[in-house]
From TrEMBL:
Pfam families the UniProt entry points to: ArdcN
Provenance organism: Naasia lichenicola
Residue span, N-terminal domain: 34-92
GO MF annotation list: single-stranded DNA binding
InterPro entries with a match to the protein in the record: ArdC_N
Name the record gives this protein: N-terminal domain-containing protein
């Protein structure tokens, strides 16, 4: 005996209409990808030399603004801060400005901070952990100094920034990159020339999936629209790309639901 199928199925016409809104309705990423300062390669290397873990870093004040507190007793990592020195030539009396660098203790890694963690939203009956398991994707620690990066995918592994503003959206976005095949060696070589299309496909798949599991609120939708429109610019996605979006959305959606009796 089998149970009647109650698992939500992807409504293709509705999803097509949803994608049209993703491309045309107003959107904005706001401060989502500008919350952290982008440090120079020189300072990234300097942080690494000090043993700073590769994770988001910020000043004491910035962590407070983000709702986190530096743990008692933690010591800041140093950065090289540019300064200008005025030097006057005794003979010509001309003043020269010379650039120098001053070592300043200023940054703390996210692992040096505490903050009240909001419980991750988990849609009823749909599980991120289950989806990862069924799709054979591993969640690995995030290793990047850039706090503005929400996450990344490499091969069959994804990593999510521990302070990402939209963790569920970002997780499904990175899962979608893997399912679209964007993270295979051959596609990674093509990424620079097709980045707009790849980012559209991953975000659009996440957008459709979030909507189907009841997790697409207006704030998330606005950020997604701004993200996609920013990457595509004036480019129109091809029909083949739209079909891939719906196919991947279906796979990700189904992977997150428990197997029903009729599936055994």
């Amino acid at each position: 005996m089998t149970l009647e199928q109650t698992r939500p199925q992807l409504d293709v016409p509705k999803s097509r209409e949803l994608l049209e809104g993703l491309l045309t309705l107003p959107g904005s990423t706001g401060e989502s990808y500008r919350r952290f300062h982008n440090y120079s390669p020189r300072n990234i290397g300097f942080l690494a030399l000090q043993g700073c873990p590769p994770e988001p870093v910020a000043t004491f004040k910035k962590w407070q603004e983000l709702g986190r507190q530096v743990q008692r007793g933690e010591k800041a990592y140093s950065i090289l801060r540019p300064i200008q020195i005025r030097i006057e030539d005794a003979k010509t009396e001309q003043v020269k400005l010379i650039k120098r660098f001053k070592v300043v203790r200023a940054l703390f890694a996210v692992s040096q901070t505490d903050g009240e963690e909001l419980p991750a939203y988990e849609p009823p009956e749909w599980s991120t952990e289950r989806a990862l398991g069924k799709l054979g994707i591993s969640l690995v620690p995030f290793q990047n100094f850039d706090g503005n990066i929400g996450g990344y995918a490499r091969g069959k592994e994804i990593a999510i920034n521990p302070v990402a503003p939209f963790p569920l959206r970002t997780t499904i976005h990175e899962i979608s990159h893997v399912e679209h095949g964007h993270t295979t060696p051959e596609h990674l070589q093509l990424y620079a020339g097709h980045r707009g299309t790849y980012e559209f496909e991953a975000e659009a798949s996440a957008y459709v999936t979030l909507n189907e599991i009841g997790a697409l609120d207006e704030q998330t939708a606005t950020v997604s629209r701004g993200y996609v429109q920013g990457w595509l610019g004036e480019q129109e996605p091809a029909e083949e790309s739209l079909r891939r979006v719906l196919n991947v959305s279906t796979r990700v959606l189904e992977a997150g639901y428990a197997a029903e009796e009729g599936d055994q």
